[in-house]
Amino acid sequence: MTDTPANRPTGVTRLLGLLYQSHPWHGLSIGPRAPAVVTVYVELVPNDTVKYEIDKRSGILKLDRPQRYSSLSPEPYGFIPRTLCGETVAAFAASEAGRGGLQGDNDPLDVCVLTERAINHGGVVVRARPIGGLRMFDGAEVDDKIIAVLESDPTYETWTELEHCPPVLIDRIQHYFLTYKDMPGTPGARVELAGVYGAQTAREVIARSQADYHAKFGDLQAALDAALGADDDGA
Question: What are the chain's domains?
């Protein structure tokens, strides 16, 4: 290949990918089949007695806080890269719930991954197929929880809708997300469950979160290529 400013950034981008670990939120791809199948970065697994979450600035998985009480995540839990719960996600939730004054929480879209196989630690990337979700509100902030099944899981691969899950499993997930922010002795619940939805709506929420991400961060790959191209031109 001829070495020109037009193609040099692609080569440099590949080199950066070989030398450095991608930021889990911004550097990982959501996947070519999104929103039907998505990449998930797992932050938390059921046996974690401390809460881990991604550090948005560095991309390093950090300890957020010890789990002071008995509420533990019932399934692997994390987020979908290059998504954002922003204006269009909030508008959709407001329309579906018939409620105004809502806003996104400005975090990547949360996802709970159902699987028969144990995922023993966070900081791993999996592919999952969304089958539904929980419409959650934390005060006036929209905080949807997508529910997905691990792709090619031999037990759950036939589940295509939330209604295929045993009700006790969904009850367990709902209970966790309704209570994990509440501390004993504090008045009132912080989190509200405003509805449960199926696979089609889950895909719509994901697509909207992609649009919100692009609106805030733009096309990062194009920005990187442009920056590298500018550096090459000035060299």
Answer: 8-228 (3.90.80.10)
The answer to whether 151 touches 37, Cβ cutoff 8 Å, is yes
pLDDT at 21: 86
Q: What is the amino acid identity at position 218?
A: G
Query: Distance (Å, rounded) from C-alpha 92 to C-alpha 211?
Result: 12
Residues in a beta bridge with 77: 44, 112
| Listed residue (145, 134, 130, 109) closest to 194, CA to CA | 134
Judged against a pLDDT cut of 60, whether residue 194 lies above it is answered with: yes
Cα–Cα dist 47/97, whole Å: 34
Q: Which residues contact 26 (CB under 8 A, 6 or more apart)?
A: 59, 81, 82, 217, 220
Residues in the chain: 235
Q: How many CB atoms sit inside 10 A of residue 42's CB?
A: 23
The C-alpha angle 111, 70, 107, rounded to 5 degrees, equals 30
Q: What is the DSSP string of 151-185?
A: TT-TTTTT--SGGGS-HHHHHHHHHHHHHTTPPTT
Residue with token string 């008045």: 187
On whether the pTM is more than 0.85, the answer is yes
Q: Dump the DSSP string for 37-82.
A: SEEEEEEE-TT-SEEEEE-TTT--EEEEEE--SS---SS-EEE-TT
**51-70 average pLDDT score:** 82
Please report, as a single letter, which amino acid is at residue 223: A
d(CA 156, CA 43): 21
